[in-house]
Specification:
The protein is mainly alpha-helical. The protein has one domain. About 85% of the residues lie in helices and about 0% in strands. Helix 2 crosses helix 8 and helix 5 crosses helix 12. The longest helix has about 30 residues. The relative contact order is 0.19.
Length: about 300
């Protein structure tokens, strides 16, 4: 069978995996809503430990624990992953807090502006420059952020916290090149002493007592964390970055719709305008990325 004949199947499986990842991420607030009584800190601690157990089991089944040992013996890699893990934990904590306090709309806005924060990090730390379309996209995003602040009546701290923490997490992870599964395992392994200590103290002072239903839901946060990430890693290997860039807006769009309908969060006209502006910003940015990659591909082919 030729390479050309297998390419559509490869792309289709990648697209399917990407859709699974982003749809699962989009519906994650519903699981957190069911665990509202647990509290944000306890949920994040439990999520860390159950994700560690789930990913560890997957790596054992796949026979990839040697990769984990290689990472753990690399001091520079461990330091990078520890810093990444702290930003990941902060991101999880902010997101769960947003669900607990009925601010999923603002959380979804944070993930919408995440690409623009990535652009800012590239300018600050990598010396990247913007072309006119990218600059326009960033300008629209800044206006959207200002309108969102007016709609909320205060600076959108949750949105900014989510966007910045996740952007910094991704930025640092690039300095520690390892697979998503191995990286997540090491990150949760490094966080696990803190998570376990927190839960022990929390239970010791009588602040937490789970029934079996709650415990099962908390255990579900392990696969709910790992499965989308593993599906995403599978998709990245089979799709172009432009395709991944388009898919990444699925999760915050689902969260936005859930917040405005199922969770019943208020959406005033100013906030609706801000979402419209950020979607416009993302369309401009993504279209520019698509055109530039298309031109680069044509130039490589000598067209």
């Amino acid at each position: 069978m030729s390479v050309l004949s297998t390419q559509p199947t490869r792309t289709e499986t990648g697209l399917g995996a990407g859709l699974i990842a982003y749809v699962l991420w989009g519906f994650l607030p519903l699981l957190f809503e069911l665990l509202r009584s647990v509290g944000a800190e306890t949920l994040v601690a439990g999520r860390t430990l159950f994700a560690l157990l789930f990913v560890g089991a997957v790596l054992v089944i796949w026979g990839r624990m040697a990769e984990v040992r290689a990472v753990l013996t690399n001091g520079r890699m461990v330091r990078s992953l520890m810093l990444a893990a702290l930003f990941l934990a902060a991101n999880w904590l902010i997101y769960v807090y947003a669900v607990d306090t009925d601010q999923v709309l603002e959380a979804s806005f944070g993930y919408f502006i995440n690409p623009m924060v990535n652009v800012a990090l590239g300018m600050l730390f990598l010396g990247e420059k913007l072309n006119r379309w990218q600059a326009l996209a960033v300008a629209i995003a800044l206006v959207a952020l200002g309108v969102q602040a007016l709609g909320l009546g205060h600076i959108p701290v949750i949105a900014l916290g989510l966007a910045v923490s996740f952007a910094l997490y991704g930025f640092i992870r690039k300095t520690a090149p390892t697979s998503s599964a191995v990286g997540l395992f090491v990150e949760t392994l490094l966080l696990s002493p803190i998570a376990a200590l927190y839960l022990l103290v929390h239970f010791a002072v009588g602040h937490a007592a789970f029934d079996m239903g709650t415990l099962w839901l908390l255990a579900l946060t392990g696969p709910a964390t790992a499965v989308p990430l593993l599906a995403f890693a599978f998709a990245v290997q089979r799709l172009t970055l432009t395709s991944i860039g388009m898919l990444q807006y699925i999760a915050p769009s689902i969260a936005f719709l859930l917040a405005a309908t199922v969770l019943g969060e208020p959406l005033n006209p100013l906030r609706l305008i801000s979402f419209g502006l950020i979607w416009l910003s993302l369309v401009v940015y993504t279209a520019d990325s698509f055109v530039r990659r298309r031109r680069a591909a044509l130039a490589t082919q000598g067209v």
